[in-house]
Design a protein that fits this description.
The complex is a heterodimer.
Chain A (H helix, E strand, L loop, with lengths): L9 H22 L7 H16 L3 E4 L2 E3 L4 H8 L1 H19 L7 H23 L7 H30 L6 H33 L5 H4 L11 H8 L1
Antiparallel strand pairs in A: 1-2
Chain B lengths: L2 H19 L11 H6 L3 E3 L5 E4 L27 H27 L4 H4 L9
Antiparallel strand pairs in B: 1-2
Helix pairs in contact in B: 1-3
Classes of the chains: A mainly alpha, B mainly alpha.
C-alpha cells in the first residue's frame, strides 16, 4: 500500500511528513519504557520479518494483489510504540534502498501503515483481549479480526490524504469504496499471516509475546478501579 | 541476554531470510490494492505505464531512488530475475535486522543496575 510520488500534492505530503516525525518522536519517547534487553533484538526481528513478508504479494482479485502491512502483528509481538517504529523502519529502508514508496510520500506512507495501522491494531487487540482468552488460539482470533479491520482503516488514511491533496479530481466515495473493498480482501490475507505468526510464537516462546505480557486485565476489574488503586499506591 | 532468546531470534531471522530470499519469487506480480485503485480509469500498456484516461496515478512521478542498486527489489548487474529478487530480498532482511537491532538497542531502557549512574534518565 505504498503511495508513489505525485499522487498526493507536495503541500499535503509535507504536512503529513511533519505529523509522521512528531508521531515517531512520541513512539521513541514512549517505546523506551517497553524496550528492555529482551525486546530490543525482538523488535529488530519483527522489522526484518515484516520486510520479508511485505515482499510476498498475494493475489486477491484477478490482476490485483496485496501484501501484509504489519501493524497488528507488530503490536501483538512488541507493543504499540515499538511496533510503529518497526513498521516505520521497514518503510524507510524500502523507500531509500528499494525505490518502493516515494520519498516525498514517505510521511503519507508512515502515517497510514505505521501510525494509523498500528494504532488501530492496538485499540482492537486491547479491546478483543478483554473478552478473548490469552491462549495461542485466542491470540490467533484476535490477530485475525484486528488485522482485517486495521488494514481497512489504514486504507482510509490514504483516502483522507487523497481527499485533502489528490492531484486529479475524482469521485471520493468511489475511491473510498474501492479502497475499502480491496483492502478487506487484503486484510483477510494479513489476518491469516498475523494469526499464524503470533500463535506460533505464543506456542514456542510465550514470554516474547507482548500481548501475553501486557494488556493484562484482572477478572472483575473495571475502569473505575484502576485510578483508585493507583492513588492508593 | 539469555542464549535461548538469541536462538529464537536466529531461527526467526532464518525464516525471514527464506521468505524474502526464496518464497518471494512465487509472489504475485500484479499491482497491489492501492496501485490498482490508483490506475482505475486509466489505460496502461504492457509495462504498466499510463497511456490515457483519468485516474489518481496519472500525475505519478518517478522515484527519487530509482537508480539505487537495489531498486524494485532487484540487484543492478544481475539479470537472472530469480537470483536478483532473492538476493535483494535477503539483503533487505539483513539490513532491516541490522538497523533495527542497532537502533532499538541504542534507545532501549537501561536496566535498573545502571539507573543510579544516569540520574533522572531512568524515570519516565
Amino acid at each position: 500500500m505504498h503511495i508513489a510520488n505525485g499522487i498526493v500534492n507536495a503541500q499535503v505530503s509535507a504536512v503529513f511528513a511533519v505529523m509522521a516525525v512528531v508521531a515517531l518522536a512520541l513512539c521513541v519517547a514512549r517505546g523506551r519504557a517497553d524496550l528492555d534487553d529482551r525486546l530490543a533484538p525482538m523488535a529488530g526481528l519483527v522489522a526484518a520479518f515484516i520486510f520479508a513478508v511485505q515482499m510476498l504479494n498475494f493475489q486477491v482479485l484477478p490482476g490485483v494483489s496485496g501484501h501484509l502491512l504489519g501493524g497488528t502483528l507488530a503490536v501483538m509481538l512488541v507493543g504499540p510504540w515499538v511496533g510503529a517504529l518497526c513498521v516505520s523502519t521497514v518503510l524507510i529502508i524500502q523507500c531509500l534502498l528499494f525505490a518502493d514508496g516515494g520519498l516525498t510520500a514517505l510521511g503519507l506512507n508512515i502515517t497510514n501503515m505505521a501510525v494509523i495501522g498500528t494504532a488501530a491494531g492496538y485499540l482492537l487487540v486491547a479491546g478483543l483481549l478483554r473478552v478473548l482468552p490469552k491462549t495461542p488460539t485466542g491470540l490467533a482470533v484476535t490477530g485475525f479480526i484486528a488485522s482485517v479491520i486495521g488494514v481497512v482503516i489504514a486504507s482510509q488514511g490514504f483516502v483522507l490524504q487523497y481527499w485533502l491533496g489528490g492531484t486529479t479530481d475524482l469521485s471520493m466515495p468511489t475511491i473510498a469504496g474501492t479502497m475499502a473493498g480491496v483492502h478487506t480482501l487484503i486484510g483477510v490475507g494479513e489476518g491469516l499471516i498475523t494469526a499464524t505468526t503470533v500463535a506460533t510464537v505464543a506456542r514456542v516462546r510465550p514470554d516474547l509475546v507482548f500481548a501475553l505480557r501486557r494488556f493484562r486485565t484482572r477478572p472483575g476489574s473495571t475502569a473505575g478501579v484502576t485510578p483508585a488503586m493507583r492513588s492508593a499506591t | 541476554m539469555k542464549r535461548r532468546t538469541w536462538l529464537f531470534i536466529g531461527a526467526g531471522l532464518l525464516v525471514a531470510l527464506l521468505l524474502a530470499g526464496v518464497v518471494s519469487n512465487f509472489a504475485s506480480g500484479s499491482p497491489d490494492g492501492l496501485d490498482h485503485t490508483a490506475r482505475d480509469g486509466c489505460t496502461t500498456n504492457a509495462e504498466g505505464e499510463i497511456t490515457g484516461g483519468t485516474c489518481m496515478a496519472q500525475e505519478e512521478k518517478d522515484h527519487e531512488t530509482a537508480d539505487s542498486p537495489l531498486a524494485d527489489y532487484g540487484i543492478k548487474g544481475i539479470d537472472n530475475e530469480y537470483l536478483a529478487t532473492g538476493l535483494s530480498g535477503a539483503l533487505g532482511v539483513l539490513i532491516t535486522f541490522g538497523i533495527g537491532v542497532g537502533v532499538f538497542w541504542l534507545v532501549r531502557r537501561r536496566g535498573p543496575e545502571r539507573a543510579g549512574s544516569e540520574t533522572g534518565a531512568g524515570s519516565d
